Amino acid sequence: MQTTPLPIVDAHQHFWNLDRNRHPWLSDPEPIPFRYGSYAALRRNYLPADYRRDTARHRIAATVHVEAEFEPARPVAETDWLTALAAAEGLPSACVAQAWLDRDDVADVLAAQAARPLVRGIRHKPRSAATPDAARRGAPGSMDCPVWRGGYALLARHGLSFDLQTPWWHMDAAAALAIDFPDTPIIINHAALPSDRSAEGLAAWRAGLATAARAPNVALKISGLGLPGQDWRYDANGPVIRDAIAIFGPERCLFASNFPVDSLIGSYDAIVDGFLRAIADRPEAEQRLLLHDNAVRVYRL
């Protein structure tokens, strides 16, 4: 399949240099539980030359680097490394930086991150339940936690957005957060992780997305749709893409690759081709929104 002539902003990708920097999940000997299973193939440097090789068939206009769980004691060091990388290599175009919203140093870290021109937003994964049945509101470290919210409240002061990675069974808390802090844009990562592809699981996922979509300051990144032990397949992921766009609308959805993480389940070409197939029946203006314009607006590129 030939690629679309439309330019793409990849709204979620990662770089790392394990020779220079420590990412505990990649650098430490003991692996962590991971939703795709083994991630041994990711324990290698991934830099702009690697990304350009993987994306060679496509018109990548810009990329947004999302914090890659860099050494948590030095969150600003990742941003400084990325700034030097962008100056030398032209990528990334912007970044979503790390900050721990419930840590004592959050005010200083946010001020330092916001002072870096590459930074557009922050990601800190709130505490989440492992299953829908275990989900409870109000847990320490969750989106309801007063300490966590105290840090979150500082984002608006710096004009920062928030990238939210949490499963769909916490979309009620996400909606409440968006309503309580209307000046802070939220971008939900990885389509709220629809890992259960049963009819019941997808129905519950759609209901969760609909809850979050009621808040006008919430957008959705359509990425990270892989399933453990399976190659990226259109028959599994195409309906998810179409449902996500139907719920949030083409004005609030963004394409993203999650590379190189999603290289574990598919090539860049397979992921882009599947997304293009899912949106092929939409007008070109909407395709442009999904592939490029929404990310330019949301991340102020």
Q: H/E element string? A: EHHEHEHEHEHEHEHEHH
Low-confidence stretches: none
Using the 3D structure, state the CATH architecture. Alpha-Beta Barrel
- In DSSP terms, counting alpha (H) and pi (I) runs of 4 or more, how many helices? 10
Helicity, as a percent range: 25-40%
Main sheet characteristics: 8 strands, parallel
**Biggest sheet: strand arrangement:** 1-2-3-4-5-6-7-8
CATH superfamily: Metal-dependent hydrolases
Protein name: Amidohydrolase family protein
InterPro entries: Amidohydro-rel, Metal_Hydrolase, Metallo-dep_Lactonases
GO molecular function: hydrolase activity
Domain Amidohydrolase-related: 9-301
Describe this structure in words.
The protein has 301 residues and is an alpha/beta fold. It has a single domain (8-298), classed as TIM Barrel (Alpha-Beta Barrel). It contains 10 helices and 8 strands. The protein starts with 7 loop residues before the first strand and ends with a helix.
In brief, what are we looking at here?
Pfam families: Amidohydro_2 (PF04909). The chain is α/β, with parallel strands linked by helices and 301 residues long.
Strand and helix layout:
Layout lengths: L7 E6 L10 H4 L20 H7 L5 E7 L8 H15 L4 E5 L7 H9 L4 E5 L22 H7 L8 E4 L6 H10 L5 E3 L10 H15 L4 E5 L11 H15 L4 E3 L12 H12 L4 H15 L3
Parallel strand pairs: 1-2, 2-3, 3-4, 4-5, 5-6, 6-7, 7-8
Helix pairs in contact: 6-7, 7-8, 8-9
Keywords:
301 residues; alpha/beta; TIM Barrel; 10 helices; 8 strands; 13% strand
